[in-house]
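Training component of the fellowship. As part of building independent skills, the fellow (R.M.) carried out the full modelling exercise for a liganded target. The chosen ligand was S-adenosylmethionine. The inputs are recorded below so that the supervisory panel can assess the work.
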Amino acid sequence: MSDYQHRARKRFGQNFLHDMGVIDRILRAIRPRAGERLVEIGPGQGALTEGLLDSGANLEVVELDLDLIPILNSRFAGRPNFHINQGDALKFDFATLADGPHSLRVVGNLPYNISTPLIFHLLDHAHLIRDMHFMLQKEVVERLAAEPGGGDWGRLSIMVQYHCRVEHLFNVGPGAFNPAPKVDSAIVRLVPHETPPHPAQDPRQLDRVVRAAFNMRRKTLRNTLKGLLSAEDIEAAGVEGSLRPEQLDLAAFVRLADRLALQAPRDETS
Ligand code: SAM
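Fellow's submitted model of the complex:
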């Protein structure tokens, strides 16, 4: 261990795990195995890293804070299965670490300020990922695992469930961290589907229609989708235009996206 005392930085979302019981429970949920390709986002001072390395898995870590690099190196540089990448996980090309489809296992006690964009970034690589285990703010996990009909059901739930099976594993209180965050946390498991259960003709159209629908979640679909789909198109997708977006399940959003794909040129990027 280095003598250097690292002061947690708020702007990097640093809340370090110190509760060995919680660390152990997370490691048991991940169940890393020798030879697997693991990626840890935000290793911090190595609370989870140590157990991940002990499994014999091949571990790549991605850490943004330059000050943590020497601490991590002093603890783990001697381990042949430890590989460090200094940089921003939001910009990191995870494809460079993959060894074919569904080869990567991604884990992390994520910085809460970037967790949603990071999950969207990882979804771009969903076909390369076997599973993901994340510590997130509990409310975010509830949105990820939400079902249609409630206030938690929204763009994050739909786009993540399009690509992944979601399991809310267990909750973690603020006392497990130093410094303690002001919010409750939870561990979630995301398992990318081999084939999406409701495949869209063009997933970009799903993103467009879901964004538009939840832009004003209190309004009816006929209103929120006005710029994208006519009332006739909505009906042709088998969707009642007087419903509000939170009442629609994933399959219905995919049908709307497929209507949109019929009229949108394939190279549309908006
Ligand atoms: N894994 C450690 C633990 O459980 O104690 C640290 C978790 S702490 C909540 C989040 C970590 O992510 C910090 O080490 C922070 O420096 C790092 N981090 C923040 N933003 C990042 C980014 N954009 N890319 C990579 N790492 C980042």
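The panel noted the following from the submitted structure. The radius of gyration is 20 Å. The longest strand covers residues 129-137.
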